[in-house]
Amino acid sequence: MRNASLNAKLLATTALVFFSLSAAHAASAQTRAPKAEAEAESAAQVDDVVVTGTLLRGVAPTGTNVVSLAREDVIATGAASSNDLLARIPQISNAFNSAPQPGGTIALPINRPNIRNLGASGGSTTLVLLNGHRMVGAGILQTSPDPSVIPPAVLERVEVIPDGGSSIYGSDAIGGVVNFITRKAFDGVEAAGRYGFADGYDQFDLNLTAGRTWRGGSAIVAYTYAEHSNIAGADRDYFIQDLRARGGSDFRSKACSPGTITTPNPFSPLLPGVDYALPGRTPGTNLCDEAKAIDLYPEETRHSLFATVSHDLNERLAFDVTAYYAQRETGRRGISAAEGTGIRGGGLIAITNPYFRPIGTELGHNVTFNYADAWGAAAPKNTSRFTSAGVTPSLTYQINDDWRLKGALNWGRSTNLVRTWQINTAAEAAALAGTTTATALNPYDVGATNADVLRKIIDFQSYGHSTQEIREARAVADGGLFALPAGEVKLAVGVEYHEETIKAQQGTGAPSALNLASSSAKRDVTSVFAEILAPVFDSPAYGALDLSASVRYDSYSDVGDTTNPKIGFNYRPTASLTVRGNWGTSFHAPSLSDMGDGVDTRVQVINASPWLPAGAPFTDLFRPTLILAGGNANLKPETADTWSLGVDWRPQGALEGVKASLTYFNVAFEDAIGLAPFLRGAPFYADPAYAPYYVLNPTLAQATARTAGLAVDGAPSIASLYAGFLTPAVLIDARRNNLGVLDVDGLDFNFEYARPASFGLWHVGLAGTYNLNRESRAIAGAPKTNEFDNGASRYSLVGSAGVVAGPVMGELTVNHSASADMANGVGQTRIGSFTTVNLFAAYDLNLGGAFSDTSVTLNVDNLFDEEPPFYNAAGGTANGSTLGRLVSIGVRKAF
Description:
The chain is mainly beta. It has one domain (about 5-235, about 295-335, about 385-420, about 460-595, about 635-675, about 740-895): Maltoporin, Chain A (Beta Barrel). The chain is about 10% helix and about 45% strand. The chain is globular, with a radius of gyration of 30 Å.
């Protein structure tokens, strides 16, 4: 990203703002409508609307809490991406009160929302929809959608169902559903631009929307461009590895430039050696803070194109199509605070290397260093590129005044590419063993090494590429069955065919000579589903009761069949009070990247055994370890029982304008996909529940049987490991397995109060989620762990207060993440809370002529420039993240 380019955009945007303000005169303008008015407007159209969480038109999902962001809310957040937008919703626990960002590696390049933070593997326990339809997956080892492909500018609203939804939608909807609903009708042209800046950071986005409505139809085309710079670790004081000044540990690395020599211990080669700092070879260790050499936040560029057309072909038949294309590119120096720059070096240099210089009389010693001098930078830039496209055409046939049939096709395709620079350790080891200056590595002064030798070591990447695709056909009929005294019984029935594929490559090597493993996988799913709603009674004496039931049957080509029901009720004892509840089952089918054809499926050979049971012979440390890694053909779906009970209150009279809700939720999540925790060492082997996941002292026959058909990484073959004296000490099944259990329950709450005033309107609100219990088992049968003792935050809050006064609007929002206990923390027993304050202001202009329908906006996120709470780990923070105080200025113009 070029700062000069962004500065020019700032000047242009600022100039437009001040020109508009200088020409402004007193006039009434379009303002943010009160939510009550918005609800009244939507009520006029509700008979033709299908709300997220139900198949039936004209009704909200029975017994379910719906969290919704209207278009006015979307604009007020100033969010530059849909991921930023979701970070404002407390129930999306993994993103709330943070600056969401993708990971920098092949494993996790896509940022995914996670309602209730139930955990995720290659897939997701939160279903992401676009206008009620699935989106294509993204990533190399991930197959869930990337929400950032849908820019906030095209959104009409966002609906979040923090409840199980598999009876309606099928797989993935365990924690809930996020549905992005796009604009359908717009007349004219709208242009909007925004520039934002923080310390060491800037961003810019431009949105152009054109629309036309006509009798019986409408069309919209929108283009969005967005870019932001990186945030260097050196630009944030709190992003460090040496945390001693804050009462923590020192996580700095010895892989520095210059590096550190470690000579053999004179008493025993099994004891720690003695360190000498280069270049002077003085006793001691060179330590460097790699957090200052890498990026805290990546740079990114996004292009998005969106289009929708709808038209009534005749009185009974209507056509609709929505399409999008998105491209996203990122760049990040280094990997993470824990993993460092990615260009660490080290190894044994012996007397045969012409560069070897002994400290005393030893014949060799270890040197730890990095390749910054060879790279010409403290850390290389790792890059990724993602594209995503989708088309969803549909036909709706009005069978009669009550029943309609809707058929839809859905196609999506993504391409995903991640390149991460790293060191060719095989070439490094060969160069350390080199015997001439033409073949040897100089670890004391890397820059003095022969250029061809260095090129073989540093011109090396980890590479991942995938193409994912979905194809769907769906038909739903809904309408009234018969009338009861309390109202009409409604029914919806549907069928669906779903097909998804992934083709992936992963490997390492020089960019021009990559050694790649390839895989491909496909599944198809045939589904039938139904939902019924019955108004049981409605009387002044007893109130009103509605009951609903839905069920879905899914037949998978690879993981079998599953049936998931859900029942719900709404009871209204008075016009202002509703008591609701629901119960259902949900599931998440293992992603194609987690199954046996996952591109990372292999046997990893480690030439040591550092993870051993208590009492193992010391010599076992020097025996190989066999690790089964990657996908698993024997995975079964993750499952959950979910239920909730809640109350909604909307009083009339003196308290009109109040909206309050309270919901108790309960999730019992089983068969969670994860990895056996073998890194725990002795405690892993001591737990009998993990006995199926390892074999001590495996025989050749056992090893051959357990690794049949898998590629071997780190050895010529399994048999070759049994040719010598040191045979494998342990075989560990570290593939993705159905292991975990998680029980979560708590309260969601929301309070809003909006009232007209002499100057216009004022409103206040408080919403959040409070977890009563969060207990997990690493594996079924293991003791429960209270996650609130291990860094889980118990509650999240968002409060707001705002006014609308003629053409001026202002709102203050406070986001709060509660502190968390750390019973097993090293040097720390608690992680602090994190509170940020965001400011939004808008001014609508009525200038007439070319400058009519113009508005300017100001957003200040993290107004008081709060830093995330301290956490004793590399990087130094947890329980939230931030870009710093981010000031954004925007201009919106309609033609």
